[in-house]
TrEMBL record:
This is GNAT family acetyltransferase. InterPro entries: Acyl_CoA_acyltransferase (IPR016181), GNAT_dom (IPR000182). GO terms for molecular function: acyltransferase activity, transferring groups other than amino-acyl groups. SUPFAM superfamilies: Acyl-CoA N-acyltransferases (Nat). Signal peptide: none annotated. Residues 13-146 form the N-acetyltransferase domain. Keywords: Transferase.
Length: 189
């Protein structure tokens, strides 16, 4: 869905995903980076523009472009399955250019997203998920403070038609203060 929410954290700014960001986002992507996504690898700006339009069309999804302090496009992330009545949402559709893997970009983005979800919206649960084969993403979610909940077997269809399992994690409202401290400490170093 279209939105006007902007979020800030140390070193990053999350701005509404725009078709104008499509060329810069496309330049970050390669086959290995995109592995585990449920849509085909975008190969042209038109493919990425179609993904932006799909994000805007998805009810309950607020998609962001991640910018560095200098305005450089670093990637994208989203809130989705936002359900204010149930006090829950998910954070995902996340990818960053390789240059920002393992640094402060992901913890800063999650700090901004979790803070908005828990402190702004009053959510009780924020879930995260990853393809069960994606060890890098699973390790990153664990480092953020995500608590493993289990694996949903044959939960999604990959672009090649194969079925994949999904590993689920969450952070609950009463866990949020400790998770926030952990993210702040990571960003302080």
């Amino acid at each position: 869905m279209l939105h006007d929410l902007t979020l800030d954290a140390p070193g990053v700014r999350l701005v509404p995903l725009s078709e104008d960001h499509a060329p810069a986002l496309l330049a970050l992507i390669d086959d290995a980076l995109w592995a585990g996504m449920s849509v085909p690898v975008p190969r042209a700006t038109a493919d990425m523009t179609a993904l932006v339009r799909a994000a805007h069309a998805a009810p309950g999804r607020l998609a962001f472009t991640v910018l560095g302090d200098d305005g450089t496009v670093r990637g994208s992330t989203s809130f989705y399955d936002v359900d204010h009545g149930q006090g829950r949402c998910e954070v995902g559709w996340t990818y960053y250019g390789r240059e920002w893997w393992g640094g402060s970009t992901n913890p800063a983005c999650k700090l901004a997203l979790f803070a908005h979800a828990f402190d702004g919206w009053g959510m009780q649960r924020v879930a995260l998920r990853a393809d069960a084969r994606n060890a890098r993403s699973i390790a990153a979610i664990r480092r953020l403070g995500g608590v493993p909940e289990g694996v949903l077997r044959s939960h999604r269809v990959a672009p090649d038609g194969s079925r994949g399992d999904t590993a689920y994690f969450s952070v609950l409202a009463d866990e949020w203060p400790a998770v926030r401290r952990g993210l702040q400490e990571r960003l302080a170093h």
